[in-house]
């Protein structure tokens, strides 16, 4: 039996090393399953005709899968809770969300790849000119439930009235709500605010400043330290190589920047 011991130990070591390989860690099923907010242009956009996803997050997923040598599946989620639930029940391996302490109680946040700016959207002739003008008595602020902007305005605005929508209204409804005075302000990310302004035919205006800067991060299920270590190295390489900046520019995003990589 003593002659079998070295062989047995070598087998254990080999098995351990295989279990720790990046592909096994990040894509245990053999396919890298990534879930993101398909309705958030900061992360990416989904072509309604082809279903093809494009933008910074899809670029990151494809590059990560290429390096791991595995196929990938990109899943579009309607909101943050769907992403958190998918990570919990292991129907997705990695996700992408803006950092928030409440979300961090449900999942572990890893490397940040973007900084997302957030700008209030108002009627073009609104007297509101800057973010500091918003938190005043009588101002009605709209936000979408569970989104980063809603979490912020619900906890930080003291005088303004916050109205929470279950989902983001379509462009025509946003124009109607702001034009009629039913709401005075929409709290959304800057890219969405700029997109809405451009689509409105001068009816709407994105405030020029940002009321909140927040990091867009990789996110994994609680306790998945090995995943975070592999992702940190990957993102650091893409940040220094300029890959993320090129992806942002290719997507024509103006409401974001490359994350600095500093630890939270």
The rough form would be described as elongated
How many helical elements?
9
What is the architecture of the largest domain at the second tier of CATH? 3-Layer(aba) Sandwich
Looking at the structure, the CATH topology of the largest domain is: D-Maltodextrin-Binding Protein, domain 2
Q: Name the average pLDDT.
A: 92
Rg, Å, rounded: 21 Å
Poorly predicted runs of 5 or more residues = 12-18
Strand-residue proportion: 25-35%
Name the helix and strand elements from N-terminus to C-terminus, one letter apiece: HHEEEHEHEEEHEHEHEEHHE
Main sheet: strands, sense, barrel: 10 strands, mixed
Q: Please count the beta strands (DSSP E, at least 2 residues each).
A: 12
List keywords for this structure.
9 helices; 10-stranded mixed β-sheet; two-stranded antiparallel sheet; D-Maltodextrin-Binding Protein, domain 2; elongated; 2 domains; single chain
Can you tell me about this structure?
The relative contact order is 0.18. The chain has two domains: 159 residues, Periplasmic binding protein-like II (D-Maltodextrin-Binding Protein, domain 2, 3-Layer(aba) Sandwich); 96 residues, D-Maltodextrin-Binding Protein, domain 2 (3-Layer(aba) Sandwich). The protein starts with a helix and ends in a 6-residue tail after the last strand. The chain is elongated. By secondary structure, it is of the alpha/beta class. The strands form two sheets. Strands 1, 4, 5, 6, 7, 8, 9, 10, 11 and 12 form a ten-stranded mixed beta sheet that branches. It has a two-stranded antiparallel sheet with strand order 2-3. It contains nine helices and twelve strands. A hairpin with a 6-residue loop joins β2 and β3.
